[in-house]
Amino acid sequence: MQGGAAMAKRTARFYAAMLIGKLAYTTQRLFGMNATFFPGKLALQICPDFMGQVGRPKNLIGVTGTNGKTTVSNLLVDLLEAEGIKTTNNRKGSNTKAGVACAFLVNATLGGKSKTEWGVIEVDERSSMHIYPFIKPDYVVCTNLFRDSIIRNAHAEYIAGIISAYMQPETKLILNADDLISSGVAPDNPRVYYSISRLPTDTETCHNIINDCQICPKCAARLVYDYVRYHQIGKAHCPNCGFASPVPDYEAKVDFAQHSMVLTERGEAQTYSLISDSIFNVYNQVAVTTLLREMGMSPDELRDGFSKLHIVDTRYHKTKVNGIEVIDHMAKEHNPVACSVVFDYLSKEPGTKEILFLLDDEKILENMTWMYDCDYEKLNSPLVERIVVPGNRAKDQKLRLMMAGIPEEKIVIGMTDEEAPDYLHLEGTDQVFVLHQCYKPDLSHKLHQRIEELIRKRGA
Fold first, then answer.
1. Does the pLDDT at position 362 exceed 80?
2. Side-chain half-sphere CA neighbours of 2 within 13 A
3. Minimal CA–CA distance to 311: which of 350, 345, 335, 351?
Protein backbone atom coordinates (compact mmCIF):
# COMPACT_ATOMS: atom_id res chain seq x y z
CA MET A 1 0.00 0.00 0.00
CA GLN A 2 1.40 3.36 -0.98
CA GLY A 3 0.86 6.46 1.11
CA GLY A 4 -0.89 9.32 -0.62
CA ALA A 5 0.85 12.27 1.03
CA ALA A 6 2.50 14.89 -1.14
CA MET A 7 5.75 16.13 0.37
CA ALA A 8 6.79 19.78 0.37
CA LYS A 9 9.98 20.75 -1.48
CA ARG A 10 12.98 20.40 0.82
CA THR A 11 14.83 23.56 1.76
CA ALA A 12 18.27 24.41 3.15
CA ARG A 13 16.61 24.96 6.52
CA PHE A 14 15.28 21.40 6.41
CA TYR A 15 18.73 19.88 5.82
CA ALA A 16 20.18 22.02 8.62
CA ALA A 17 17.38 20.85 10.92
CA MET A 18 18.09 17.21 10.04
CA LEU A 19 21.80 17.54 10.74
CA ILE A 20 21.49 19.50 13.99
CA GLY A 21 18.55 17.40 15.19
CA LYS A 22 20.49 14.16 14.65
CA LEU A 23 23.53 15.61 16.44
CA ALA A 24 21.28 16.57 19.38
CA TYR A 25 19.78 13.07 19.42
CA THR A 26 23.24 11.42 19.42
CA THR A 27 24.49 13.73 22.17
CA GLN A 28 21.49 13.12 24.40
CA ARG A 29 21.79 9.37 23.95
CA LEU A 30 25.50 9.48 24.84
CA PHE A 31 24.49 11.07 28.15
CA GLY A 32 21.88 8.39 28.81
CA MET A 33 18.88 10.58 28.04
CA ASN A 34 15.73 9.39 26.24
CA ALA A 35 16.09 11.91 23.40
CA THR A 36 12.44 11.60 22.38
CA PHE A 37 11.40 15.27 22.40
CA PHE A 38 14.22 17.84 22.30
CA PRO A 39 15.74 16.84 18.91
CA GLY A 40 12.31 17.20 17.32
CA LYS A 41 11.68 20.52 19.04
CA LEU A 42 15.05 21.78 17.82
CA ALA A 43 14.36 20.64 14.25
CA LEU A 44 11.02 22.48 14.27
CA GLN A 45 12.64 25.66 15.57
CA ILE A 46 15.17 25.59 12.73
CA CYS A 47 12.63 24.53 10.08
CA PRO A 48 9.00 25.22 11.07
CA ASP A 49 7.84 23.16 8.04
CA PHE A 50 10.03 20.20 9.03
CA MET A 51 7.02 17.86 9.32
CA GLY A 52 5.93 18.71 5.79
CA GLN A 53 9.37 18.00 4.30
CA VAL A 54 10.58 14.92 6.16
CA GLY A 55 10.07 11.56 4.45
CA ARG A 56 7.06 9.56 5.56
CA PRO A 57 6.75 5.74 5.64
CA LYS A 58 4.69 4.31 2.79
CA ASN A 59 2.21 2.81 5.27
CA LEU A 60 1.38 5.18 8.10
CA ILE A 61 -1.00 4.60 11.02
CA GLY A 62 -2.10 7.27 13.50
CA VAL A 63 -3.60 6.39 16.89
CA THR A 64 -5.54 8.88 18.99
CA GLY A 65 -8.27 9.00 21.65
CA THR A 66 -8.64 9.89 25.31
CA ASN A 67 -7.84 6.45 26.71
CA GLY A 68 -5.96 3.52 25.20
CA LYS A 69 -3.90 5.21 22.49
CA THR A 70 -0.55 4.29 24.03
CA THR A 71 -1.59 0.66 24.55
CA VAL A 72 -3.01 0.39 21.01
CA SER A 73 0.14 1.96 19.53
CA ASN A 74 2.41 -0.38 21.46
CA LEU A 75 0.38 -3.46 20.52
CA LEU A 76 0.50 -2.46 16.85
CA VAL A 77 4.26 -1.95 16.92
CA ASP A 78 4.79 -5.26 18.74
CA LEU A 79 2.62 -7.20 16.29
CA LEU A 80 4.22 -5.64 13.22
CA GLU A 81 7.76 -6.09 14.51
CA ALA A 82 6.95 -9.74 15.40
CA GLU A 83 6.33 -10.14 11.66
CA GLY A 84 9.77 -8.66 10.97
CA ILE A 85 8.41 -5.22 10.02
CA LYS A 86 10.52 -2.33 11.30
CA THR A 87 8.44 0.72 12.19
CA THR A 88 8.85 4.44 12.71
CA ASN A 89 7.13 5.05 16.04
CA ASN A 90 7.07 7.28 19.11
CA ARG A 91 6.31 4.55 21.65
CA LYS A 92 9.06 5.77 23.99
CA GLY A 93 8.40 9.47 23.64
CA SER A 94 6.06 12.37 23.25
CA ASN A 95 2.79 12.24 21.29
CA THR A 96 2.78 15.98 20.56
CA LYS A 97 4.27 17.72 17.51
CA ALA A 98 7.88 17.74 18.75
CA GLY A 99 7.76 14.06 19.76
CA VAL A 100 6.33 13.03 16.40
CA ALA A 101 8.91 15.17 14.58
CA CYS A 102 11.63 13.46 16.64
CA ALA A 103 10.36 9.99 15.65
CA PHE A 104 10.48 10.93 11.96
CA LEU A 105 13.90 12.58 12.31
CA VAL A 106 15.46 9.56 14.01
CA ASN A 107 14.02 7.16 11.43
CA ALA A 108 15.11 9.15 8.37
CA THR A 109 18.39 9.51 6.51
CA LEU A 110 20.28 12.80 6.55
CA GLY A 111 18.69 13.48 3.18
CA GLY A 112 15.24 13.12 4.75
CA LYS A 113 14.18 9.75 3.29
CA SER A 114 12.30 7.42 5.64
CA LYS A 115 14.28 4.32 6.65
CA THR A 116 11.11 2.30 7.22
CA GLU A 117 8.08 1.45 5.13
CA TRP A 118 5.73 1.34 8.11
CA GLY A 119 4.95 3.89 10.80
CA VAL A 120 2.76 3.84 13.94
CA ILE A 121 2.37 7.28 15.48
CA GLU A 122 0.50 8.04 18.69
CA VAL A 123 -1.13 11.47 18.42
CA ASP A 124 -2.34 13.64 21.29
CA GLU A 125 -5.89 14.71 20.44
CA ARG A 126 -5.18 18.42 20.86
CA SER A 127 -2.10 18.09 18.63
CA SER A 128 -4.19 16.89 15.66
CA MET A 129 -3.98 20.34 14.04
CA HIS A 130 -0.17 20.28 14.14
CA ILE A 131 0.30 16.70 12.89
CA TYR A 132 -2.37 15.33 10.52
CA PRO A 133 -2.09 18.07 7.85
CA PHE A 134 1.61 17.24 7.44
CA ILE A 135 2.02 13.48 7.85
CA LYS A 136 -1.38 12.49 6.36
CA PRO A 137 -1.84 8.97 7.82
CA ASP A 138 -3.37 6.22 5.70
CA TYR A 139 -5.33 5.00 8.74
CA VAL A 140 -6.25 6.58 12.07
CA VAL A 141 -7.58 4.60 15.03
CA CYS A 142 -9.67 6.69 17.43
CA THR A 143 -10.23 4.63 20.57
CA ASN A 144 -12.76 6.86 22.38
CA LEU A 145 -13.33 10.46 23.50
CA PHE A 146 -14.07 11.23 27.15
CA ARG A 147 -13.60 14.05 29.59
CA ASP A 148 -9.91 14.56 30.30
CA SER A 149 -7.84 17.32 31.88
CA ILE A 150 -10.40 20.11 32.09
CA ILE A 151 -7.79 22.85 31.66
CA ARG A 152 -6.46 21.41 28.37
CA ASN A 153 -9.36 19.58 26.84
CA ALA A 154 -12.63 21.11 28.03
CA HIS A 155 -15.40 18.81 26.74
CA ALA A 156 -15.11 15.63 24.65
CA GLU A 157 -17.21 17.14 21.84
CA TYR A 158 -14.75 20.04 21.63
CA ILE A 159 -11.91 17.56 21.08
CA ALA A 160 -13.99 15.66 18.52
CA GLY A 161 -14.36 18.93 16.63
CA ILE A 162 -10.59 19.49 16.56
CA ILE A 163 -9.91 15.99 15.24
CA SER A 164 -12.63 16.35 12.60
CA ALA A 165 -11.36 19.74 11.42
CA TYR A 166 -7.81 18.53 10.77
CA MET A 167 -8.33 14.93 9.66
CA GLN A 168 -7.19 14.51 6.06
CA PRO A 169 -10.02 13.44 3.72
CA GLU A 170 -8.15 10.40 2.34
CA THR A 171 -7.46 8.91 5.79
CA LYS A 172 -9.51 5.81 6.63
CA LEU A 173 -10.83 5.80 10.20
CA ILE A 174 -11.09 2.84 12.59
CA LEU A 175 -13.78 3.89 15.08
CA ASN A 176 -15.45 2.58 18.23
CA ALA A 177 -19.14 2.06 17.39
CA ASP A 178 -19.95 1.89 21.11
CA ASP A 179 -18.89 5.51 21.69
CA LEU A 180 -21.35 7.97 20.14
CA ILE A 181 -18.87 10.84 20.46
CA SER A 182 -15.75 9.41 18.81
CA SER A 183 -17.73 7.36 16.26
CA GLY A 184 -18.94 10.60 14.70
CA VAL A 185 -15.59 12.29 14.00
CA ALA A 186 -14.79 13.40 10.44
CA PRO A 187 -18.14 12.14 9.07
CA ASP A 188 -17.09 12.41 5.41
CA ASN A 189 -14.02 10.17 5.79
CA PRO A 190 -14.03 6.46 4.87
CA ARG A 191 -14.50 4.44 8.06
CA VAL A 192 -14.82 1.04 9.68
CA TYR A 193 -16.54 0.44 13.03
CA TYR A 194 -15.72 -2.08 15.76
CA SER A 195 -17.81 -3.02 18.79
CA ILE A 196 -18.16 -5.38 21.74
CA SER A 197 -21.58 -7.05 21.92
CA ARG A 198 -23.72 -6.85 25.02
CA LEU A 199 -22.12 -8.19 28.22
CA PRO A 200 -23.97 -9.70 31.21
CA THR A 201 -22.77 -6.79 33.35
CA ASP A 202 -24.25 -4.12 31.05
CA THR A 203 -27.24 -2.19 32.37
CA GLU A 204 -30.08 -0.16 30.87
CA THR A 205 -29.27 2.99 32.80
CA CYS A 206 -25.94 4.68 33.51
CA HIS A 207 -24.68 4.19 37.06
CA ASN A 208 -21.66 6.46 36.61
CA ILE A 209 -21.62 10.06 37.71
CA ILE A 210 -21.20 11.30 34.14
CA ASN A 211 -22.59 10.33 30.74
CA ASP A 212 -21.63 12.93 28.14
CA CYS A 213 -23.91 11.70 25.37
CA GLN A 214 -27.51 11.87 26.55
CA ILE A 215 -28.89 14.17 23.84
CA CYS A 216 -29.29 13.25 20.16
CA PRO A 217 -26.64 15.08 18.10
CA LYS A 218 -29.11 15.36 15.19
CA CYS A 219 -32.36 16.65 16.75
CA ALA A 220 -31.50 17.28 20.44
CA ALA A 221 -34.12 14.83 21.74
CA ARG A 222 -33.19 12.62 24.68
CA LEU A 223 -31.42 9.42 23.61
CA VAL A 224 -32.65 6.02 24.74
CA TYR A 225 -29.89 3.57 25.67
CA ASP A 226 -30.49 -0.06 24.74
CA TYR A 227 -27.72 -0.80 27.21
CA VAL A 228 -24.89 1.04 28.96
CA ARG A 229 -21.46 -0.43 29.65
CA TYR A 230 -19.92 2.58 31.37
CA HIS A 231 -20.39 6.33 30.97
CA GLN A 232 -21.48 6.90 27.33
CA ILE A 233 -20.17 3.53 26.12
CA GLY A 234 -23.01 1.27 24.95
CA LYS A 235 -25.80 1.24 22.36
CA ALA A 236 -28.30 4.06 21.99
CA HIS A 237 -30.93 5.38 19.62
CA CYS A 238 -33.10 8.44 19.22
CA PRO A 239 -36.86 7.72 19.31
CA ASN A 240 -37.54 11.04 17.58
CA CYS A 241 -35.36 11.05 14.44
CA GLY A 242 -33.99 7.52 14.21
CA PHE A 243 -30.35 8.39 14.90
CA ALA A 244 -28.55 5.39 16.43
CA SER A 245 -25.19 3.88 17.28
CA PRO A 246 -23.36 2.77 14.09
CA VAL A 247 -23.69 -0.82 12.92
CA PRO A 248 -20.27 -2.44 13.52
CA ASP A 249 -18.21 -4.05 10.76
CA TYR A 250 -16.31 -6.01 13.43
CA GLU A 251 -18.19 -7.18 16.52
CA ALA A 252 -16.58 -9.07 19.40
CA LYS A 253 -18.42 -11.47 21.68
CA VAL A 254 -16.28 -11.72 24.80
CA ASP A 255 -16.03 -14.72 27.13
CA PHE A 256 -14.03 -13.65 30.16
CA ALA A 257 -14.32 -17.11 31.75
CA GLN A 258 -12.63 -18.69 28.70
CA HIS A 259 -10.32 -15.69 28.28
CA SER A 260 -11.29 -15.40 24.63
CA MET A 261 -13.34 -13.42 22.15
CA VAL A 262 -15.13 -14.35 18.94
CA LEU A 263 -14.81 -11.50 16.46
CA THR A 264 -17.37 -11.49 13.68
CA GLU A 265 -16.00 -9.71 10.63
CA ARG A 266 -18.68 -9.06 8.03
CA GLY A 267 -20.34 -12.37 8.77
CA GLU A 268 -17.19 -14.46 9.31
CA ALA A 269 -16.27 -15.42 12.89
CA GLN A 270 -12.72 -15.79 14.23
CA THR A 271 -11.68 -16.71 17.78
CA TYR A 272 -8.78 -14.94 19.52
CA SER A 273 -7.37 -15.27 23.03
CA LEU A 274 -7.61 -12.17 25.23
CA ILE A 275 -4.42 -10.48 26.37
CA SER A 276 -6.17 -8.82 29.34
CA ASP A 277 -9.41 -9.13 31.29
CA SER A 278 -9.79 -5.34 31.62
CA ILE A 279 -12.65 -4.06 29.44
CA PHE A 280 -10.49 -1.07 28.40
CA ASN A 281 -7.84 -3.44 27.10
CA VAL A 282 -10.38 -5.69 25.39
CA TYR A 283 -11.49 -2.63 23.43
CA ASN A 284 -7.83 -1.90 22.65
CA GLN A 285 -7.33 -5.43 21.35
CA VAL A 286 -10.48 -5.28 19.21
CA ALA A 287 -9.32 -1.94 17.74
CA VAL A 288 -5.90 -3.40 16.87
CA THR A 289 -7.46 -6.52 15.35
CA THR A 290 -9.86 -4.45 13.25
CA LEU A 291 -7.10 -2.24 11.87
CA LEU A 292 -4.72 -5.08 11.03
CA ARG A 293 -7.47 -7.14 9.40
CA GLU A 294 -8.30 -4.08 7.28
CA MET A 295 -4.63 -3.88 6.34
CA GLY A 296 -4.49 -7.52 5.33
CA MET A 297 -2.98 -9.39 8.30
CA SER A 298 -4.46 -12.89 8.52
CA PRO A 299 -6.37 -14.24 11.55
CA ASP A 300 -3.66 -16.88 12.06
CA GLU A 301 -0.93 -14.20 12.12
CA LEU A 302 -2.96 -12.22 14.65
CA ARG A 303 -3.57 -15.28 16.84
CA ASP A 304 0.12 -16.09 16.81
CA GLY A 305 1.02 -12.49 17.62
CA PHE A 306 -1.46 -12.17 20.48
CA SER A 307 -0.14 -15.37 22.07
CA LYS A 308 3.19 -13.62 22.59
CA LEU A 309 1.93 -10.25 23.81
CA HIS A 310 1.02 -8.65 27.11
CA ILE A 311 0.02 -5.16 28.23
CA VAL A 312 3.17 -3.10 28.81
CA ASP A 313 4.46 -3.10 32.38
CA THR A 314 4.09 0.66 32.68
CA ARG A 315 0.30 0.13 32.35
CA TYR A 316 -0.20 -3.08 34.31
CA HIS A 317 2.22 -5.29 36.21
CA LYS A 318 1.44 -8.07 38.69
CA THR A 319 3.59 -10.25 40.94
CA LYS A 320 2.77 -12.60 43.82
CA VAL A 321 4.76 -12.80 47.05
CA ASN A 322 3.89 -15.08 49.97
CA GLY A 323 0.33 -15.40 48.70
CA ILE A 324 -0.23 -11.63 48.26
CA GLU A 325 -0.65 -10.18 44.77
CA VAL A 326 1.05 -6.82 44.21
CA ILE A 327 -0.45 -5.02 41.21
CA ASP A 328 0.73 -1.81 39.54
CA HIS A 329 -2.15 -0.33 37.57
CA MET A 330 -2.07 2.98 35.75
CA ALA A 331 -5.06 5.21 36.56
CA LYS A 332 -4.78 8.24 34.31
CA GLU A 333 -4.84 11.34 36.50
CA HIS A 334 -7.29 14.17 35.72
CA ASN A 335 -9.30 11.65 33.72
CA PRO A 336 -12.51 10.64 35.53
CA VAL A 337 -13.50 7.86 33.13
CA ALA A 338 -10.10 6.13 33.17
CA CYS A 339 -9.95 6.22 36.96
CA SER A 340 -13.59 5.11 37.31
CA VAL A 341 -12.97 2.05 35.13
CA VAL A 342 -9.87 1.13 37.16
CA PHE A 343 -11.75 1.61 40.45
CA ASP A 344 -14.55 -0.59 39.14
CA TYR A 345 -12.08 -3.25 38.01
CA LEU A 346 -10.24 -3.54 41.31
CA SER A 347 -13.46 -3.43 43.35
CA LYS A 348 -14.69 -6.53 41.48
CA GLU A 349 -11.47 -8.48 41.95
CA PRO A 350 -12.02 -11.20 44.58
CA GLY A 351 -10.30 -11.00 47.96
CA THR A 352 -9.40 -8.29 50.45
CA LYS A 353 -7.24 -5.44 49.22
CA GLU A 354 -5.24 -2.39 50.17
CA ILE A 355 -4.68 0.52 47.80
CA LEU A 356 -1.73 2.87 47.45
CA PHE A 357 -2.83 6.07 45.68
CA LEU A 358 -0.13 7.72 43.58
CA LEU A 359 -2.61 10.06 41.88
CA ASP A 360 -1.04 13.26 43.15
CA ASP A 361 -0.86 16.45 41.10
CA GLU A 362 2.72 17.61 40.74
CA LYS A 363 1.60 20.94 39.25
CA ILE A 364 -0.45 21.72 42.39
CA LEU A 365 -2.57 24.21 40.40
CA GLU A 366 -4.38 21.68 38.18
CA ASN A 367 -8.15 21.99 38.50
CA MET A 368 -9.24 19.16 40.82
CA THR A 369 -12.90 19.06 39.80
CA TRP A 370 -12.17 15.84 37.85
CA MET A 371 -12.39 13.96 41.17
CA TYR A 372 -16.08 14.87 41.45
CA ASP A 373 -16.77 13.44 37.98
CA CYS A 374 -15.00 10.22 38.99
CA ASP A 375 -16.73 7.23 40.61
CA TYR A 376 -14.81 7.03 43.89
CA GLU A 377 -17.93 5.29 45.21
CA LYS A 378 -16.64 2.11 43.51
CA LEU A 379 -14.00 1.93 46.25
CA ASN A 380 -16.61 1.90 49.03
CA SER A 381 -16.45 -1.85 49.50
CA PRO A 382 -15.86 -4.03 52.57
CA LEU A 383 -13.14 -5.77 50.54
CA VAL A 384 -11.15 -2.51 50.40
CA GLU A 385 -9.57 -2.45 53.85
CA ARG A 386 -7.08 0.41 53.60
CA ILE A 387 -6.27 3.31 51.28
CA VAL A 388 -2.88 5.01 51.68
CA VAL A 389 -2.64 8.45 50.08
CA PRO A 390 0.71 10.30 49.98
CA GLY A 391 1.50 13.60 48.27
CA ASN A 392 0.44 17.22 48.02
CA ARG A 393 -3.21 16.49 47.22
CA ALA A 394 -3.75 13.91 49.96
CA LYS A 395 -6.33 16.04 51.79
CA ASP A 396 -8.29 16.59 48.57
CA GLN A 397 -8.26 12.85 47.95
CA LYS A 398 -9.30 12.08 51.52
CA LEU A 399 -12.25 14.47 51.28
CA ARG A 400 -13.45 12.88 48.04
CA LEU A 401 -13.02 9.36 49.45
CA MET A 402 -15.04 10.27 52.54
CA MET A 403 -17.75 11.87 50.36
CA ALA A 404 -17.94 8.49 48.61
CA GLY A 405 -18.85 6.95 51.96
CA ILE A 406 -15.50 5.36 52.75
CA PRO A 407 -14.92 5.33 56.53
CA GLU A 408 -12.23 7.76 57.67
CA GLU A 409 -10.40 5.03 59.57
CA LYS A 410 -9.64 3.26 56.29
CA ILE A 411 -7.87 6.33 54.85
CA VAL A 412 -4.27 7.17 55.78
CA ILE A 413 -2.55 10.39 54.67
CA GLY A 414 0.40 12.52 55.72
CA MET A 415 3.47 10.75 54.31
CA THR A 416 5.79 11.05 51.32
CA ASP A 417 5.52 8.76 48.31
CA GLU A 418 8.60 6.83 49.44
CA GLU A 419 7.19 6.29 52.95
CA ALA A 420 3.76 5.13 51.76
CA PRO A 421 4.43 1.33 51.64
CA ASP A 422 5.27 1.40 55.38
CA TYR A 423 1.66 2.42 56.13
CA LEU A 424 0.16 -0.70 54.55
CA HIS A 425 -0.99 -3.44 56.96
CA LEU A 426 -0.15 -6.42 54.71
CA GLU A 427 -1.80 -8.77 57.19
CA GLY A 428 -4.74 -10.81 55.95
CA THR A 429 -4.48 -8.95 52.65
CA ASP A 430 -4.98 -10.76 49.35
CA GLN A 431 -4.04 -7.91 47.00
CA VAL A 432 -2.18 -4.61 47.09
CA PHE A 433 -2.97 -2.21 44.25
CA VAL A 434 -0.50 0.56 43.43
CA LEU A 435 -2.50 3.06 41.37
CA HIS A 436 -0.21 5.47 39.57
CA GLN A 437 -0.55 8.26 37.05
CA CYS A 438 1.00 8.37 33.56
CA TYR A 439 4.15 10.13 34.67
CA LYS A 440 5.02 7.94 37.65
CA PRO A 441 5.70 4.42 36.35
CA ASP A 442 9.26 4.48 37.70
CA LEU A 443 8.09 5.51 41.17
CA SER A 444 5.36 2.87 41.04
CA HIS A 445 7.93 0.19 40.14
CA LYS A 446 10.17 1.31 42.99
CA LEU A 447 7.33 1.18 45.54
CA HIS A 448 6.19 -2.17 44.12
CA GLN A 449 9.62 -3.59 44.95
CA ARG A 450 9.48 -2.02 48.42
CA ILE A 451 6.08 -3.65 49.08
CA GLU A 452 7.50 -7.02 48.03
CA GLU A 453 10.37 -6.55 50.50
CA LEU A 454 7.94 -5.71 53.31
CA ILE A 455 5.81 -8.78 52.56
CA ARG A 456 8.87 -11.06 52.62
CA LYS A 457 10.14 -9.45 55.83
CA ARG A 458 6.81 -9.74 57.64
CA GLY A 459 6.38 -13.29 56.35
CA ALA A 460 9.75 -14.25 57.78
1. no
2. 3
3. 345
Q: What is the amino acid identity at position 33?
A: M
How much is the pLDDT for 149?
A: 78
- Which residue, 134, 136, 129, is CA-closest to 101? 134
CB of 97 within 8 A of CB of 130? yes
pLDDT band at 1 (very low <50, low <70, confident <90, very high): very low
What are 401-455's pLDDT values in tens digits? 999 999 999 999 999 999 999 999 998 899 999 998 876 778 888 999 999 999 9
Tens-place pLDDT, residues 160-169: 999 999 999 9
